[in-house]
Amino acid sequence: MSNESDSNNNPVIARLAAIKTPVRISYLPVDSRGYPTPKFVDLVNGRPEFRVMNTEYLAKCVTKKQCWVCGKPLGRYMTFVVGPMCIITRTSSEPPSHLECGRYSAQACPFLSDPKRERVVEGMPDGAVQAGIGIKRNPGVVCLWTVSAYKVWRPEVDRGVLFRMSEPSSVEWFARGRPATYQEVDYAMLSGLPLLLELANKDGKDAVRDLEHLYKLARQYMPHEPE
What we know:
Strand 8 and strand 9 form a beta hairpin. It is globular, with a radius of gyration of 18 Å. 37% of the residues lie in helices and 18% in strands. The strands form three sheets. A four-stranded antiparallel sheet has the order 3-5-8-9. By secondary structure, the chain is α+β, with helices and mostly antiparallel strands. The protein has nine helices and nine strands. The chain has helices spanning 3-9, 11-16, 23-26, 55-64, 84-89, 99-108, 110-113, 182-203, 205-218, and strands at 41-44, 47-53, 78-82, 91-92, 142-147, 150-153, 162-165, 170-175, 178-179.
């Protein structure tokens, strides 16, 4: 069957055909829907389950400095694919990727590229856990936070590891699979802040004051405000 015929019969393939595929990602296996299967995806009953990370591969990414998406070695600069609340806390639950792999993820991933897409938690396999306190909402925007260094740490009350992101060498924002506007990022920041504030209030006034400071710092990395 030709590529043109595949595109006509499969909307996923048709959509992905409009996105430039990095060479590293082109070597990844493709699932039954037509999506490249990132290296971090675990197998459940022999099939890739995109909602479940492979914990063995997570450890490999940390120890061998491999890309979270394509599995190839990372260079000096590494890109975290995160939401706006992670920019405030400077924390990610996933290790970094190549910048081009992060860009592809921001454009191709159904959840990252569709603000209306919700996280599906029903039917999650037993033992599928995520470190830290996950925020279930879809913020509608995604940030590519590129760094030259990061730190790994273990939360006291949770299993797994988290990643403390350093100051970025570059920042890119995406929404709906294309560069995000100032208004889109501003709304995502403001609408998500109460979720962090609720947690900070439980820890007292100092935590709230620290959050306010981190929020102001995060807004320095928003897209340029329109004149």
